DNA sequence: TCGATCCTGTAG
DNA sequence: CTACAGGATCGA
């Protein structure tokens, strides 16, 4: 599920719901969830701590706890993270639940159980996310910076964009959508895109993410299934064989890095 | 740079 | 039954 916009929406909601709530107990239902850390380490360290801040870096959720510790959550493919008002009513796909004082619970709801949870000191947390590229919605992320980083990579540009070391937060959907808007073929080597196109790509990334955040606000970070009506409307993703909204040509699907890539063969070269 | 892997669910 | 799924990591 979640790329940057969905994680951003989840964080916004969590920030309002968890501010200064105290952890009563952590229940880590599957040991893999904290690998390579020992679940018992978290279960013993979390009780009594306050959730003071909620931050996002790329697709990582960083819960700032009292005592300077950080609980990092990565939702991977199908995770969702939200507060339920009554800890007794947990969904069947709950993989970890953190009881809060007062009866609420923070739920890691993750059908595929690929999401992960780690507890760090402030210094460890900083080191753990140090390898991430710039936040695409920050001022640090300029067309110039994108051009410099892209110029140093021969990767196909779609894979380049999904590599979190280059830009933090893009995944399979929004990488494809940004490339469509910029009119760039996903297989083109990153270092063979002219600077005018890089500027278009830079704009497209920001535009796509901003719009997607708006759509995600009301549909993510809450219990239950995702609400259809508010979903971001994709131009190419998951539209193989359908007509391109720009030129009417059939959308193609190819494999890149083991993932599906969708694009318009006429608009993207 | 590929393929396998971690998991479960759904669509065909 | 097979293919595929909004992610990331590992080893060949």
Could you characterize the architecture of this molecule?
The protein is of the alpha+beta class and 269 residues long. It is built from seven helices and ten strands. Strands 5-7-6-1-2-3-4-8 form an eight-stranded antiparallel beta sheet. Strands 9-10 form a two-stranded antiparallel sheet. A hairpin with a 4-residue loop joins strand 3 and strand 4 (70-74). It is elongated, with a radius of gyration of 20 Å. The model has no long low-confidence stretch (mean pLDDT 95). It binds a DNA duplex (12 and 12 nucleotides) through helix 6.
Total DSSP E strands:
10
- Secondary-structure-based class equals alpha+beta
Helix content: 25-40%
**What number is the mean pLDDT?**
95
Number of helices: 7
Widest sheet: strand ordering: 5-7-6-1-2-3-4-8
- Supply Rg: 20 Å
Low-confidence segments, given as residue ranges, are none
Shape: elongated
Q: Can you write the helix and strand succession as a string?
A: HEHEEEEEEEHHHHHEE
Largest sheet: 8 strands, antiparallel
Concise synopsis of the structure shown:
This protein is α+β, with helices and mostly antiparallel strands. The protein is built from seven helices and ten strands.
Structural features:
two-stranded antiparallel sheet; eight-stranded antiparallel beta sheet; DNA-binding; alpha+beta; 269 residues; 7 helices; 10 strands; 29% helix; single chain
List the SSEs and their pairings.
Elements (H helix, E strand, L loop, with lengths): L3 H15 L2 E8 L10 H7 L4 E8 L2 E6 L4 E5 L5 E5 L9 E7 L4 E5 L6 E5 L1 H7 L14 H9 L5 H6 L9 H11 L12 H22 L35 E5 L2 E5 L6
Antiparallel strand pairs: 1-2, 1-6, 2-3, 3-4, 4-8, 5-7, 6-7, 9-10
Helix pairs in contact: 1-7, 4-7, 6-7
The chain binds a DNA duplex (12 and 12 nucleotides) through helix 6.
